[in-house]
Every structure is written in structure tokens, then in C-alpha cells.
Design brief:
With 106 residues, this protein is an all-alpha fold. Helix content is 42%, strand content 0%. The termini are far apart.
Length: 106
């Protein structure tokens, strides 16, 4: 039987930590989303945040599923393996030239 997902961190300090089990689910000790440093963000996530667009809005504008965008952001799907059509759809939704987009994600 698998271990249940924790609903709170067992860290008793007032500090937020990235070492608890919640960090594996993209949450900090207070169960708030962790905003990853720019160096750990995917190119799509970085471009999206630069213009203040949510992942849901990018999904709506591009026609790429929210789940797929989440997987590109967390590295489960590699941007180097995305189809040209998906790259075009995402770059158009972001308002980025396709050549600049491809340079950023490859």
C-alpha cells in the first residue's frame, strides 16, 4: 500500500522549507504553490510569466491542454520533443516569433 500524500509539513519551524514531502507536489510547508527560481523554470514557463499569463490562459489561447503545459513546465515532457504544430500554437499564444521560441526551447 502506498504512503498517503501529506496535507501539511511536519516541519515545526516558522520557516518555509523545500525539503518536506509537499515540495514534491509543488507546495511549500504552508501548502502554497512553490514559485520556482527562474533557473529552474522551463522556457515556456519563463516566457509565460514574463508577460503575466497563467498556464490556464496559455492553454485556452494555444489549444494545448493544461495537462500538457504543466508537463512541459515540470519537465515530464521535453520541449525538444514537441511537435512543430504545438510549438507554433504556443508561440502564437505567447506573441513570440516562432524562430525565437524554437531557439529558447531547443
Amino acid at each position: 500500500m502506498s504512503k498517503p500524500k501529506p496535507t501539511y509539513c511536519t516541519n515545526q519551524s516558522a520557516e518555509h522549507c523545500a525539503a518536506c514531502e509537499l515540495s514534491s507536489y509543488g507546495r511549500d510547508c504552508q501548502n502554497s504553490p512553490i514559485d520556482r527560481p527562474i533557473s529552474h523554470q522551463s522556457p515556456i514557463e519563463r516566457m509565460r510569466k514574463e508577460i503575466g499569463m497563467s498556464r490556464a490562459e496559455l492553454a485556452r489561447r494555444s489549444g494545448v491542454s493544461l495537462v500538457a503545459l504543466e508537463k512541459y513546465d515540470n519537465g515530464e515532457l521535453k520541449t525538444t520533443k514537441m511537435s512543430l504544430q504545438i510549438a507554433i500554437d504556443i508561440s502564437n499564444a505567447l506573441g513570440v516569433d516562432i524562430c525565437d521560441f524554437l531557439k529558447a526551447v531547443v
